[in-house]
């Protein structure tokens, strides 16, 4: 599969890196107007998308191309003031707490021995130390990894809680005190204008982990949530409403940004679900291997009322000559491993566990980007028959099933309804990022000098982590926000030319 990914990104270097950003339209300060808004003190609140995170890390050039920094530059033409950011110490991206690495370096493109490009980690030792970083608050209050309720949680920036997981290392770098909240620090700047983009992480970690977390809908206590859980919509609504109340308390106007369809990003669309090529002989041998399972075990489980006939059909394994769907673990299926170990089958524990929640993937499943490094591999060199996706199931964290996708979708719809309703209730600009990025995913959008798509690496919109935008993608997002602001506040803030911003980084100094 790694060779497949290399082939897909091997179109490569031409046009991946561009020169200095430009305006979408010529800038004449006398032409532009702030309308009904006051941009003199702009504060941006959010998560990694606000911070400028890209390529699996936070680093200086990414922060400089964050959408708030781009937007603040445009605000200077309509009375905008200084915009400060908690810049990292280098362009590597590593983050340390008293010398212990808590975040790794960013991804870049390298080449293998045959000249095929592939993403790898940038070489070098980072110099950003949490305990010696400048204190805030800063105008850019984007905190990578933050969920909605984290922004109002005291102690989220306490460096002493980073290693135990109760605090965020990125916020610990610039929190004004160990007990401060992100929102209180943001409000302390007395913003005249703000943007708020939060909620992606309330579903994203569940999705990127292949649904390995829990849908906490109905649980109103976020202190009991795991890191990969879906946030209850009422918890989200309460946290989000409190943030809007705080940010508007001094009379500030602002823009609320909704949550895109996260399953349309390259992390979920790059690796095809049908990805196992087999010749006729191998397919036949595999079907013989699973023959007893299909014809005896599954019907027996139906007969004894352990599973339904419909579930038995979904668990049937059938390989054919050509490209096949891999076998996977589906944790939403009935776990039959205990039954299989008992009479009358008395299967060995290892075999029972293998078959416990086994099925073949289908076209509704999304195989995540990291699966490219394990699909088709043989984890045990002494067992060449042990192939992941063929005789060894692809683990749960590598597949987002249709059931899990529905959980993500239902939560996102509720979050977005809250965001839109609060924008209307508080007379704020509403930014439909979901629609804007859907256009990118659905074949691309025309920009200056080309087309911006969600194709991994070569599409220009998304960085090498397959989740966060490139600088070009952030510039596109900036324009969507500016256009919503202009419409709401009768302003004429100038947009930018996304094509003049860089895309994927090429770098030879890698390991």
Task: Provide a brief overview of the structure.
This protein has 511 residues and is of the alpha/beta class. It is 31% helix and 13% strand.
Write up this protein.
With about 500 residues, the protein is an alpha/beta fold. The chain has 2 domains: about 1-270 and about 405-500, SGNH hydrolase (Rossmann fold), CATH 3.40.50; about 275-360 and about 365-400, no CATH class. About 30% of the residues lie in helices and about 15% in strands. The chain has 17 helices and 20 strands. Strands 8-2-9-10-17 form a 5-stranded parallel beta sheet, sandwiched between helices. The protein has a 3-stranded mixed beta sheet with strand order 4-3-7, with no helix packed on it. Helix 4 (about 65-75) packs across helix 17, helix 7 runs antiparallel to helix 15 (about 400-425) and helix 11 (about 290-305) packs antiparallel against helix 12 (about 310-315).
């Amino acid at each position: 599969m790694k060779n497949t990914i290399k082939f897909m990104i091997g179109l490569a270097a031409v046009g991946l890196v561009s020169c200095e950003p430009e305006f979408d339209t010529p800038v004449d300060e006398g032409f532009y107007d702030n309308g009904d808004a006051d941009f003199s003190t702009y504060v941006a609140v959010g998560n990694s998308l606000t911070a400028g995170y890209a390529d699996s890390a936070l680093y200086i050039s990414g922060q400089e191309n964050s959408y708030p920094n781009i937007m603040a530059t445009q605000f200077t033409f309509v009375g905008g003031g200084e915009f400060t950011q908690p810049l990292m110490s280098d362009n590597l991206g590593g983050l340390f707490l008293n010398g212990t690495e808590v975040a790794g370096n960013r991804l870049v493109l390298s080449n293998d021995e045959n000249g095929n490009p592939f993403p790898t980690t940038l070489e070098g030792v980072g110099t950003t130390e949490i305990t010696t970083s400048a204190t805030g608050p800063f105008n850019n209050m984007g905190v990578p990894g933050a969920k909605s309720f984290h922004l109002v949680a005291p102690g989220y920036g306490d460096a002493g809680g980073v290693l135990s997981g109760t605090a965020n290392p990125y916020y610990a770098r610039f929190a004004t005190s160990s007990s401060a909240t992100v929102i209180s620090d943001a409000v302390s700047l007395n913003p005249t204008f703000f943007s708020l983009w939060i909620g992606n992480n309330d579903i994203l970690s569940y999705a990127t982990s292949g649904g390995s977390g829990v849908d906490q809908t109905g649980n109103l206590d976020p202190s009991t949530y795991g890191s990969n859980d879906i946030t209850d919509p009422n918890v989200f609504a309460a946290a989000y409403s409190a943030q809007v109340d705080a940010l508007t308390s001094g009379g500030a106007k602002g823009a609320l940004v909704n949550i895109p369809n996260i399953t349309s990003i390259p992390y979920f669309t790059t690796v095809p679900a049908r990805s196992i090529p087999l010749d006729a002989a191998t397919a036949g041998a595999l079907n013989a291997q699973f023959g007893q399972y299909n014809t005896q075990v599954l019907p027996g489980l139906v007969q004894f009322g352990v599973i339904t006939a419909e579930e038995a059909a979904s668990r049937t394994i059938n390989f054919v000559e050509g490209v096949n769907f891999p076998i996977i673990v589906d944790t939403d299926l009935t776990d039959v491993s205990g039954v299989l170990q008992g009479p009358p089958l008395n299967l060995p524990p290892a075999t029972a566990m293998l078959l416990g929640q086994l099925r073949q993937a289908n076209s509704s499943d999304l195989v995540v980007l990291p699966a490219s490094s394990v699909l088709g591999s043989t984890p045990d060199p002494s067992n060449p028959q042990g192939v992941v996706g063929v005789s060894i199931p692809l683990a749960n964290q590598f597949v987002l099933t249709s059931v899990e996708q529905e959980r993500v979708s239902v939560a996102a719809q509720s979050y977005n309804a809250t965001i839109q309703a609060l924008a209307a209730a508080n007379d704020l600009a509403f930014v439909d990022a979901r629609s804007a990025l859907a256009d990118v995913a659905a074949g691309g959008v025309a920009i200056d000098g080309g087309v911006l798509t969600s194709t991994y690496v070569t599409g220009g919109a998304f960085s090498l982590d397959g989740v966060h935008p490139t600088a070009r993608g952030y510039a596109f997002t900036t324009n969507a926000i500016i256009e919503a602001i202009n419409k709401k506040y009768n302003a004429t803030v100038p947009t930018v030319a996304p094509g003049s911003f860089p895309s994927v980084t090429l770098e030879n100094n890698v390991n």
